[in-house]
User: Fold this.
Amino acid sequence: MQGIRTRYIRIPDLLMLHDEASLTKQGIPKLLKKFSNYKLLILDEWLLNDLSDEEQYFLLELIERRHNCSSTIFCTQYKKEDWHARLGGGVHADAIMDRIV
Assistant:
């Protein structure tokens, strides 16, 4: 029996990986590819902290790559109705919400 390729990560840890990856030319594309390839991705502490524009764009790219082809679980203490505002309320927030709700 074969299992589902799954990855659990806290958003603060994912964003630290993002910061490290941004130091090299191919770092971000490699990181996006790595986390896009899991059939199930569990993101814990979703929207616990405010996100910079760069972090919002990174999460948008990750969610876009996973959209309609794999599953993502968002673990948070916030109601879904509060997510848009927690994401900054701009166009990135609109795009992220369109893909996950």
